[in-house]
Amino acid sequence: MDTLLIIDDEKSLLDVLALVFKKEGYEVKTVTNGADALEILTTGSVDLVITDIRMPHISGMEILRYVKDNKPEVPVIVITAYGSIQQAVEALKAGALDYIVKPFDVEELKILVARGLERKHLEQENILLKKDLKEKFRFEDMIGKSRLMQGIYVLIEKVASTDSTVLITGESGTGKEMAARAIHNLSRRKDKAFVTINCAALPENLLESELFGHTKGSFTGAVSDKKGMFEMAHKGTLFLDEIGEMSPWTQVKLLRALQERKIRRVGGTEEIPVDVRVIAATNQDLKKRIEEGKFREDLFYRLNVISFEMPPLRKRIEDIPLLVQHFLQKYCQQMGKKMKRLAPEVVGIFEQYSWPGNIRELENVIERIVAIEDRETITTACLPTEMIGLAKRDEFKVELGPNFNLNDFLDSVAKRYILRALDMSGGRLKKAAPLLGVSYRTLRYLMDKYGLRAREELEEVGVDK
Predict the structure, then answer these.
(1) How far, in Å, are 154, 244, 291, 387, 392 from residue 310 at the CA level?
(2) Using one digit for the tens of pLDDT, what is the confidence trace for 150-168?
(3) Which domains does the chain have, with CATH numbers?
(4) CA distance 356 to 391
(5) 54 phi and psi, to 5 degrees?
(6) 294 burial level (CB within 10 Å; 0-12, 13-18, 19+)
(7) 146 close to 137: Cβ distance less than 8 angstroms
(8) Run of H or E including 272
(9) Mapping DSSP to helix (H, G, I), strand (E, B) and coil, where does residue 49 land?
(10) Distance between CA 298 and CA 300 in Å, rounded?
(11) pTM attached to this predicted model
């Protein structure tokens, strides 16, 4: 039930309006002065205000200004006498929904009230819709609406409910640590520590000490006992980044800790029980490292209980505008600058660029642009040198000659855009066909031709694509 606050120094008018609007199904609060009105507005909930402009002590204009400053979503209708039209116009400029002149037709006021509440409700629905869309494109601190990222979100939710060891693979800058944090934040361990260590950043002797701790006097500089990362992460999560760079000797000790759930500090003899969930990440091919004798096969299988790959940015093109918007807001706010926007040609370049550094590279590019550019619109002139060349590059430029096959080339282009349309449509053919400008039947034919399968077909056979 919507609540109306009606303010007028004529008690008889208030009684009539209260009776009329209660019959219409509204809750009605009436006051004869601005002071009582401000008290209701401060302490209570009101959906629409009707106020006379001319009142002693606190005027209707002051009431209007208070509402617009403190509850801008609440519509205000002002009542004015015939000779006060100029004040009514001023009220409209100050944000009033509308005005009505005394003596007025109650039916006309009913229409204004209904219109004001309808607009308020629509604005509230719009805010909720935007919030829902924002949440749909976000998962913990990760951003992305692509099919690949939606699949990652689902997998993370499933993995988080277990205590299994997780191996996250993917190129540098794809957000492996962010995914690990999401798993921790959704797990039963969320209230405990999330401890991270980069295995490539420390030499072997220091890495062992950082992981397992050391006892006083165990080596030069060990002036006291020190807890390692495993002990610090007890009951929580330990994230081992760049696990592929770990030395063979440290791999042995890590394998033992995972198997026995006990650790021994460097130089110590005491077995210390630890309850730690381990999440490891690497940008390397661990199976290849095993073949080269640089990574233990038994440790790989101990880590690889549950594994998934974070997709590179070039495979989730539709997420680029969302990420750009996020980083623009982040750095414009941090640097106290007015929000910037991208020129259409820049968006095109961002979508063509291969992003070898993935999300980290995109963030660095946006931070640099915000830091050094004063213009509000980001053009190609603002971009790094290696990206500007894409503005003039022919996307389909190929070398013609005896080895070139036109049919194969056209098939590859068609397949590429079909896959892109399927990605944008969530794998649904009926949604993908209009994006390609073809009929459902034509798209079905092309899918069969190129050996592609729709999402609904995969779901029928129990494959989660």
Answers:
(1) 13, 16, 23, 24, 31
(2) 889 999 999 999 999 999 9
(3) 3-133 (3.40.50.2300), 143-311 (3.40.50.300), 315-392 (1.10.8.60), 406-460 (1.10.10.60)
(4) 18
(5) -95, 110
(6) middle
(7) no
(8) strand 272-273
(9) strand
(10) 5
(11) 0.58
